Amino acid sequence: xxxxxxxxxxxxxxxxxxxxxxxxxxxxxxxxxxxxxxxxxxxxxxxxxxxxxxxxxxxxxxxxxxxxxxxxxxxxxxxxxxxxxxxxxxxxxxxxxxxxxxxxxxxxxxxxxxxxxxxxxxxxxxxxxxxxxxxxxxxxxxxxxxxxxxxxxxxxxxxxxxxxxxxxxxxxxxxxxxxxxxxxxxxxxxxxxxxxxxxxxxxxxxxxxxxxxxxxxxxxxxxxxxxxxxxxxxxxxxxxxxxxxxxxxxxxxxxxxxxxxxxxxxxxxxxxxxxxxxxxxxxxxxxxxxxxxxxxxxxxxxxxxxxxxxxxxxxxxxxxxxxxxxxxxxxxxxxxxxxxxxxxxxxxxxxxxxxxxxxxxxxxxxxx
Length: 368
Fold this sequence. Notes:
protease, six-stranded mixed sheet, 2 domains, four-stranded antiparallel sheet
């Protein structure tokens, strides 16, 4: 397929708005993807959504073999709310194609489907291909995580079609992601007449914020961001409730355990304030293993044959690859090259589509 042909098909996917939780839009796109995959000979299975989320789709090629095969992971949900398309329509400007979700990750999902079909038609495919499309990745895959992990345990390799990074490079490691919410419950009082009777929940959250932020250690790769805080009812009332939302990233499982120990042992500064911390590890660290390094070497060789140089990067962002890296060798960032994910300027490089498709197809054909 030419870049123009690919781009025209990708446009149809982009023009179905699919923010996480928009069940109607996600259902429509899942049905479109299932039809597209069936047209190239795949067996498809739509899994009904749960928990207010959209459905998931499994497509299988070369399913007759009993060998552990290749799992391709894609997501169809985006961060852009319904109505975004009106202000940020699909458009092409030179080598850039713009549109909500085109970079993260509808273009990558589409070219992976076409690569799978081409690999199956080539007659050189020795492993079965399972392509899973989920509808809730942007919120941490709460309804698809178990399915992702189950399929990964039965696979020999995992290829994730998150967008390429840094000019076409792929991802071989990601940080683990913690999400916490802390709620402090103090005692209200008039701030002038009976200040001594109050117990400030905001003061407690402020101390907790500083304690969490102190965990940031760039040398070890641990970063903390207390991204939201709130509380209180009026300036002249000692606040009885306050909260904080915390995002925490770690490089490895040892650092993850240290965070969990810190949270388990944390106690409020004021014994009269009750502190409740909920949440935990949202995605485990995706660490580069020797098997992942070997898989990357294969990909780099294929890229060299195509005519470009591939590098493997570590990123702080999480993906569904975090769930699979410890279960099967995983390569991530195999989607289209571009930039601007999660913004109204996201785009793909049109000229990257064919080379990324050939890279994916080459992996599927060469892995045994």
